[in-house]
Write a structure and sequence with these properties.
Layout lengths: L2 H5 L5 H21 L2 H23 L2 H4 L3 H18 L6 E4 L2 E4 L1 H22 L5 H19 L3 H17 L4 H21 L5 H13 L8 H13 L23 H9 L1 H24 L3 H25 L18 H18 L6
Antiparallel strand pairs: 1-2
Length: 359
């Protein structure tokens, strides 16, 4: 085999192009809203994102699947450490001077395990027993509950992704619907029956969303965000010329879409939405062409998570959803979110290059 053949990229070019395009938009957005040291820090993590992506692209995802159970145990340990020994708002852990949001990785390791667990049933053509379904449901419910204590929106996205993977994995629909109902019941009890964790904040944000009563200040960010979009319309203020977003909290993380919309205009916003929809579409093609069930389920899970997270972020920025605090994949400034994006996308590219049957 020639050197050219060895280094030739064999993964899905569409996914790679989308990742690069979103990262370039990210660099432009952060440069126009942040100081030079902050930009350089972000540039470093963009680089680490693609290094991680390349590493996951090179490694064989089937080999990684052997460690699915270990990954699940690690996710549980990481959840415990985050909840009991994390930072003051318990959304992550601090290593040195860098704060890492752990819930992205926790969710991914669990989805990875679920995909592997279901794939075994495909290979043997065995229908899942009630005990196995209860086992999977218990895992999803436990991790969803643990994540919801500190990060409600990520818990909901994780829960939705788990349901999609299990649906594609041929878990019986009537049992999925029953599980969904049970999860909603426990979720409602937590949200409306306690004031622990993020339940109170979630209730107040939903209250503002439905009533527009901002007497307690929970709608401040959404008011400024929607004002930016309404003020600009189809226009663009130009790079670094945004006015409202300079007073917008989290303008390069939770509300980065608003910042981009103000400075680069309507068509930039439409392009970003198109990229996330295409990311999911390409993921479904990768799943369809995957030679085995594990790759198929994992590709669907990654594609759905990214698209869901991106559209939730955009929905919040446009005032279509209650405030959540979700970052925009590949675009929002941050270390852990970029590393997670690189890791998950690298595995997706790994699946897309696979042309042999699973062992």
């Amino acid at each position: 085999m020639s050197i050219k053949e060895k280094i030739r990229f064999k993964g899905d070019k569409g996914i790679l192009i989308i990742s690069i395009a979103l990262s370039l938009i990210s660099l432009t957005a952060v440069l126009s809203t942040a100081s030079l040291p902050v930009f350089l820090h972000h540039l470093l993590f963009i680089g680490l994102c693609f290094v991680t992506m390349f590493g996951m692209y090179v490694l064989n995802y089937k080999t990684l699947s052997r460690f699915a159970t270990i990954g699940l145990l690690f996710a549980f340990l990481l959840l415990i450490v985050t909840l009991f020994f994390g930072n003051k708002i318990r959304r992550g852990i601090v290593i040195g001077n860098q704060e890492f949001q752990t819930f992205y990785f926790i969710g991914f390791f669990v989805i990875f395990y679920i995909a592997k667990f279901l794939a075994k049933r495909f290979k043997t053509d065995m229908e899942m027993t009630h005990r196995e379904e209860i086992f999977l449901f218990a895992i999803v419910l436990a991790f969803t509950g643990g994540m919801a204590i500190s990060n409600m929106s990520t818990a909901i996205i994780f829960f939705a992704t788990s349901l999609v993977v299990m649906f594609v994995g041929n878990v019986r629909i009537k049992h999925l619907l029953l599980f969904f109902a049970v999860a909603c019941f426990f979720g409602a009890c937590y949200l409306f029956g306690t004031d622990s964790g993020r339940s109170s904040t979630f209730r107040h944000r939903c209250h503002y969303y439905f009533t527009h009563d901002n007497s307690e200040g929970y709608g401040d960010q959404m008011i400024k965000s929607t004002a930016v979009i309404a003020r600009n319309g189809f226009g663009a203020a130009g790079p670094g010329q945004g006015i409202i977003n300079k007073n917008l909290p989290e303008k390069d993380t939770d509300y980065v879409f608003t910042s981009i919309y103000e400075e680069f205009g309507f068509f930039a916003g439409i392009f970003i939405i198109f990229c996330y929809l295409m990311f999911f579409y390409r993921s479904t093609l990768i799943a369809k062409n995957s030679p085995g069930p594990f790759g198929r389920l994992l590709a669907i899970g990654i594609g759905f998570w990214f698209c869901c997270q991106g559209l939730v972020h955009i929905g919040v920025n446009c005032g279509l959803l209650p405030a959540t605090g979700q970052t925009l994949p590949f675009i929002s400034r941050g270390g852990s979110s970029l590393l997670f994006a690189g890791m998950a996308t690298g595995i997706l590219l790994n699946i897309s290059k696979d042309e042999k049957g699973e062992n």
